[in-house]
Amino acid sequence: MSFDLVVRSRRTVTPEGVRPAAVAVRGEKIAALYDHAAPLDAAEDIDLRDLALLPGLVDTHVHVNEPGREHWEGFASATRAAAAGGVTTIVDMPLNSLPPTVDVAALEAKLRVAAGQCQVDVAFWGGAVPGNVKELAPLLERGVCGFKCFMSPSGVEEFPPLGLSEARQALEEIAGLGGVMVVHAEDPALLGEPSGPTYREFLDSRPEQAERSAVEQVVRLAGETGARVHVLHVSSASCLDVLEQARARGVAVTAETCPHYLTLAAEEVPEGETAYKCCPPIRPEANRDLLWDGLGRGVLSCVVSDHSPSPAALKVPDFAAAWGGVASLQLGLRAVWTEASRRGYGLADVARWMSANPAALAGISGKGGIEPGNDADLVAFDTAASSPVDAAALHHRNPVTAYHGRTLKGAVLTTWLRGRPVDGEPCGRLLLEGP
Q: Where in the numbering of this chain does the Amidohydrolase-related domain appear (predicted)?
């Protein structure tokens, strides 16, 4: 039996754990796993020895912004950065493009502009906004993974938030369709305007209670409508008990957090360095420790980037006025590995949080694990490497990131997409999955 590619590693990260293995690839798929030293007939046989072999990461929270704001980030630059960071599938958020992805016509416009640009596979969220309930079924039928909504202002006027009655109506529709709603959960009634330009004033304007209150509302609506919901970018550990208790009652709710909430802390944010500004905000170190506990216990199931880039001109040194969003698509794996390894977590944990669980959330078939039948999306990762981040050297369109100058562990050496090394050619596919 012959194969197109065999990749061997003494540290192959499989769904059953980390073990020595030879991953045999035929065409675009993983055909079988063998013992590390098994003699195999292959056109190409690569032995990584002690370098780790991970499944390609699945990042379900990426703001690409094209068409319309491609000077913030576009499909070519975003997917190039993703591949460099070990991410082989991204799911694009609907709100920052013009038009936003709130109907099939807007999705088709996005598909046309993305075609032929992507170096990794790309799937799409649709948007739920006031007045578009009738557009949800056609969008799902066309293949979006589910729907994104805001409970508070999104930052762009083209994508307004849902009030509670509108959210209920959308969730009732989504429940009937068998879809999922992913929710930016901050209660607008508890948000304020920063009283000045400092980070402390910005943080005080978006208190933990605003997140907790919104999560409580989401959980209640999910329980009443039977809809499946997912809480995006949890930054406050005060939400964890609400989520855990809801799951215990059988409510179909999951939640994610992001590398910046797990690796950065409010005490470390330099004044005027608005690359750190995001919504909800980066909170104090003690809160960060509790988020890790929630992740370890499975209350938080996914770690995804919320890559929300902007031109440097929008990151003015005033936390009240600057655009909110952390650019980190290329750096998520290294950032999480740096902190996870320090806290005693292993590669299997990271692969579950950053590959298997996000793939399951978005319903993307053939992704998320090194196992026969899946796409041969693989990452050679040097866990022992260490280097400082240079924002100007990243593939993001704009050289702005909160990680600039920070030393991170790990290095992505090779990324394979469906058995092919990502080498700068746009070989990614547009994934239209649906429910």
A: 53-422
